[in-house]
Amino acid sequence: MDPTADIPPLSADGAPETNRRSACGAILAAILATAASGCRTAATASRCTEPVTLEKSTTPTPRRRPIALSTWDHGLPANRAALGVLHADGSALDAVETGCRVVELECPDMTVGLGSRPDRDGRVTLDAAIMTGDGRAGCVAFVQGVAHPVSLARLVMERTPHVLLVGAGAEQFARESGISVTAPTLTRAAEAEWRAWLAERRYQPTINIENHDTISMLALDAAGNMAAASTTSGLAFKMHGRVGDSPIIGAGIFVDAPIGGAICTGLGETVLRTLGAHLAVEAMRAGATPQEACERAIDRIIEKNGDPSGYQVGMLALDFEGRIGAYAVQRGFTFAIQEELRDAPSRFS
Ligand code: SD4
Closest by alpha carbon to 59, among 13, 100, 92? Predict the structure, then answer.
């Protein structure tokens, strides 16, 4: 099947058949996950004491089919949670935050959240961003001890006049917002890998082509609003202080209504040099389909970064008509559309 072929079939009311069976469970799971993990860790004080409410759009546009699109295999649980929000008439913004929080809490690949592999100094430092189609954006980079950087990024967007907070300043803002900032620690598995890496100390900032799993998400809600988010620990054993593309607007994520949105995963330096997500959205503005936009952006990334044999970049795009695009430098980039996992086409096999 064409990896970018139409999204899975709809039932009469517009909910995908696969989602109908699990919608109630997914809604409940998403709400419970948000409520439970929020109270334990990253939600604001008011969110902990108030019932979880899902932001609703007031725009009187016709209802349309909600869409969730995410990177890698863990895009599936992220999409399930996001679709739970969207099918309960929640906003795209709530959906991408909720989906990313699922992976921040549990990421077996150790590439998202506090359980991630550390930098070369043994510190887990996290990056995240969130953006809406009307141009609002919030990002955090190089933060430590924050369980849900995506929610902190959303607070930067909603409660500050800024777009990006980094390091100690972002952690201070978290504490001031009622989000707990825990002492640096490593999971047993992450520490074992770090110690094994220390034995060689080979600093080679390339990314394993098959196994690097930032979660980046795009969602379109029933009211026609689009949002994007990304959250990651970046490269394993990176230099202390290194920040990738994920928390940079225009690089890791970009959304612009009424054109569409794009999200990236892969070796951040290559995407930073080209502002990959922005490239794809601007290609759509010039008339490209989301698929053509992803292909053009990936080609440009390859053109600007030289020999592509040592890195991977995966890109996803979504327009306001609900069309999707997916493309990668190398084979092996999986993505989730609704509750279906697909393989993206790639420039090289
Ligand atoms: C980074 N782009 O920090 C991220 C890593 C990534 O899948 O996407 N991994 O460079």
Answer: 92
